[in-house]
Fold:
Amino acid sequence: MAGSRGQFSSRIGFILAAAGSAVGLGNIWGFPTQAASNGGAAFLFVYLILAFTLAYPALMAELIIGRHAHANAATALRQISPSSLWGKIGSGVGVAGMVVASLILSFYAIVAGWMIGFFVAALLKLLGLNDVAIWLESFSTARNLGLMTLFMGLTAGIITQGVHGGIEKWSERLMPMLLACLVGLAVYVLTLPGASEGLKIYLLPDFNKAIEPDLILKALGAAFFSLSLGVGTMLIYGSYISDEEHLPSLGGWVTVTDVSIAVLAGFLVLPSMYVALHNGIEIFDASGNLLSEDTLIFTVLPALFDTIGSAGVVLAGFFFFLMSIAALTSSISMLEVPVAYFVERDAGSRPSVTWVTTAIITLISATIILNFETLFGLVITLTTRYGQPLLGFMFCIYAGWLWNRDTLLTELKKNNPGAADGLFWRIWPTYVKVVCPLIILGIFYQSI
Ligand code: TRP
Structure:
C-alpha cells in the first residue's frame, strides 16, 4: 500500500498533518472574528459543545471509512454501500465534497494571500521599502490577484510531492512554532490597556444569545470548517493512516488540538480588538456592529504590533509568516481532495493532475476577486454553513446506517482486538446513526 498510495510514516506525522489541516485560517481568522460579532462567550460556549458532540463523531466517521477503503471519498462511499443505488449516491456525495473542497480553497487562497502580503510587507518595512509595503497591505484587486496566485502555486508545489515528502514534513516542522507564537502574543496582549474589556466579552456568556438558531447554525459551520469536515479531506487523510493506529484517540488528539488553538486565538484576537479601540482605531460602526468581519484581524493585529515599537515589525513578520504556513498546511489538504480523486481514477500523473486542478481553482478564485462584494461572502456561506454540515450529515448516514456493522467493527479491531468492549464502540455507532443526523437536521430546521 505504502508504495502505490503513500502513507503517513508515523503517528505523530499523521497527528501533525491532520492537525495542520484542521488548524488554519478557520481558527485564527474565522472563529475569533465570528465569536466577536456573535455574542463572544455565547458563541464560544455553543462552538465548544458542537465541536465535541458533533464534529468529533463526524470526524471519526470520515477517518474510519477512509482507513477502511484506502481510497478517496467517492470510491470509499461506493465501497461500503449495501446496494448499487446507494453506491451511486455515495459517489455523488464524494464528488459533491470535491466540488465544495475546491470552492473552499478558492476563497481560502484569497485570505491566505493577505497573510503572505502582510508577512512580506513586514520584511520590506525592515528594508525601508515602505511604499511597496503599504501597497501589499492595502486592499486592491491587483494585490489580491497576485497574492492569491502565489499562494495557489505554493500549495500545488507541495501537493505534487505527495504525502510523505510534502504534507507530513512541512506540518511537523512548523506547527509547534505557531503554537508558541500564539501563546506568547496572547500573554502579551493581556498586559495592555483595554484588553480586559475584550476578555470579558469572550468569557462571560449571555445565555439568551446561545439559544438563537442563527448563532447555533453559524457555530456549527465554524466547527465543521475548523475540523475540515464534510468534503472528504479527513477521509483522505484517514486513508493514509496505517492499520496499527488507534483511530479514536488519533481523532481525539486532532479535535483537542484544533479546538484549543481556536480558543487560544480568541484570547489573542478579542482582547486585541479592544486594545485597538483603546488606541483610537475604529472597529465598530454607529450601530455597534463590527466594521468588517473579513478584514478585522488585518486591522487589529497590525495595530497591536504597532504598540510594540520597532520590534513589532519583526514580530508582525514572524506572526504572518506562521499564519501563511498554517494556511498552507490547510490548503494542501483541500487540494489533496480533487487531486486524489483524479489520480485514483487514472486521469493522469500526480503532478499533471495537480497543476490542471490548481489552474481551474485559481480561475474560480480570480472570479471571486473580480466580483468581491457579491461573491466572497456568498461562497463562504454556501460552502461552510450549508455544504459542509449537509455533506457531514451524509457521511454519518453512511457510517451509521449503510455500512455493515461487522465490517466496521473489524476495521476498529485491526489495532485494538478488544474494541468490541471499549467505550467508543458502546457509544459512537448509535451516536453517528441517530444523534448526529438529528442534531444537524434540527439546527437546519430551526434556522429556516
Ligand atoms: N480547517 C481549516 C481551517 O480551520 C480549513 C480546512 C482545511 C478545511 N481543509 C478543509 C475546511 C476542508 C473545509 C474543508 O482553517
Q: What stands out?
A: The first helix runs from residue 2 to 5. The chain has a mean pLDDT of 90. The pocket of tryptophan is lined by residues 21-22, 24-27, 101, 104, 225-226, 228, 231, 233, 330, 333-334 (CB under 6 Å). The domain at 2-447 is CATH 1.10.4160.10 (Hydantoin permease).
